[in-house]
Amino acid sequence: MDEKLQDLVLAFRASGKGREAVLERIAALLYGEPHRFGFDDRDEAAEALERYRERIAGLAERFVDRGTPFEGYLASSLRFLAKSLRRERRKCRERELVCERAESWACEEREALRPLGAAGFEGCDDDPAKLLPQGLTVARLNALRSRLVYLYVKCAWEAEDGETRRVAAATGVPLEWLAAATAQARRSLEAERLRYERLSLRRDRSWSRLRLLEGRQAEACDLAERRRVGEAIAKEKLRLESTRRAIKDFHPLVPNSVVARILGIPKGTVDSGLYYLKKSLPGLEAARLPKKAPLRRARRTGRAASVASATALSLSHPKD
């Protein structure tokens, strides 16, 4: 059969005819001895013939008689092809494993990154409506409303549509104007947004690597291999946890100078307004609003936007 296959290939090379006959003979060899060519069984050989038909036919087209029979060239090429097929199959299994666990990961992330509501804070039992000082005069109430706008624009990263409506209603500014000012403030944080996207991409890649490593560990039979993969899993878990903490603690603030430029007022007005607002609202002290480093990340800085929204809710219904 070796001689016949060799003759068929040489005749095909000479005349360009008989391509199907060569493929049929190659298929007969593969089905007859799949292990000889690197395949586990006939099903795997059939899959290779179906997926790489043109590539296998190209072996006959590229063959040059240099003393080595075509079947030797065919065997070495198909063994490499069998390795590629198994590698792709393993990647497919790993992708399926990742997809199976993706939903549980999404639920976990939604819980971990749950936005702070306007009606309460994590670790704080105080009612936001009680954070306002009582008995304010009209002048002080107007000043408080202005300072609330400064705070909300400063916390534009955390701003949401519902909170924007409440703050606009409480402060008496047009909703469209406040939404535009908040959007402009968010655009000033473009570098921070890119950093957040890099963190998210790093988290996603780390999570995918972790799921793949867990799948490989489950399939590993050798004890040393399982130990090696286990060490890699431990390192990847630390890397993923670190990235998740960085995302959770990511709460950039708009610099006071940018807030002043957007609102068209002096920077000192914003500085003093936020200072007195912080003194009058204890909730801002819990939010750890930074004084001189507006872009410093703090674990609970995101509370500032919620305090602003809660204060707006209180201003909408002032007590007599």
Can you characterise this structure?
The protein is mainly alpha-helical. It is 72% helix and 0% strand. The chain has helices spanning 2-15, 19-32, 42-51, 53-62, 70-112, 138-154, 161-171, 175-187, 190-219, 223-248, 256-263, 267-280, 282-287, 303-316. Helix 6 (138-154) packs across helix 12 (267-280), helix 9 packs antiparallel against helix 10 (223-248) and helix 11 packs across helix 12. The longest helix is centred in the N-terminal third of the chain and has 43 residues, at 70-112. The model is unreliable at 108-136, 286-303 and 313-320 (pLDDT under 50).
Structure characteristics:
disordered C terminus, 3 domains, mainly alpha, 14 helices, 320 residues
Summarize the entry for a quick read.
By secondary structure, this protein is mainly alpha-helical. It is built from 14 helices and no strands.
Sequence-ordered SSE layout with sheet pairings:
Layout lengths: L1 H14 L3 H14 L9 H10 L1 H10 L7 H43 L25 H17 L6 H11 L3 H13 L2 H30 L3 H26 L7 H8 L3 H14 L1 H6 L15 H14 L4
Helix pairs in contact: 1-2, 2-3, 5-9, 6-7, 6-8, 6-12, 6-14, 7-14, 9-10, 11-12
How are helices and strands ordered from N to C? Answer: HHHHHHHHHHHHHH
Strand content: under 5%
Number of helices: 14
Q: Give the end-to-end Cα distance, rounded to a whole number of Å.
A: 104 Å
Please give the domain count: 3
Q: How many DSSP-defined strands? A: 0
